[in-house]
Description:
Elements: H1 5-12, H2 27-46, H3 60-66, H4 70-101, H5 105-120, H6 123-133, H7 139-146, H8 159-183, H9 187-195, H10 200-203
Amino acid sequence: MNATPASQGAAAAPRKRIALGPLWLAAPGALFLLAFLVFPSLKLLSLSVVQNGTDAFSMSAFARFFGPSVYQRVLLTTFSIALQTTAWCLALGYPLAYWLSGLSRRTQQGVSLLVLLAFWTSTLVKNFAWLVLLGRNGIVADALKMLGIAGGDQLLFNRPSVIFAMAHTLLPLAVVTMLPVMNQIDKRVSLAAATLSGDRAQVF
């Protein structure tokens, strides 16, 4: 029995494919993060609302944390060091990134490589180097003794040295983060400001 033209057209029509959007490409990464980051974090967080040795709900851990305990002092010290390190990285990294943005592309790439060398160096190597330099028998301590300045044997294991070491470690990261943003600023804006009799502060 011969098929009708309508049925032949329906049979010849290609099957409609399901279009997968670009978000489906992120599905494997999202599943990986859910399995190995979100779930363990929630599991760890659940321990804070469970009484020790039992499965009963308890807020005793939060009561110990917000009460007079060592946890608050540790947390305040951590945030204090983080804020001071951020301030030093901004104070030192912003002028450096601003200066680099004014260089030619070739010169900027060469100088940026020197900045990245400090970032690529192992943190363990940098910390060990500072231990040698700032130690009791280090170069800095000997120089301070020659100048008659006391305190050369107390340069390590205090808060200023920790902030100094962390700022030294994170400063290249601050520079490479701010530099691309500054490169996107139209250079003609500063030229126009200088042409309109603006001083260097106003141009900046």
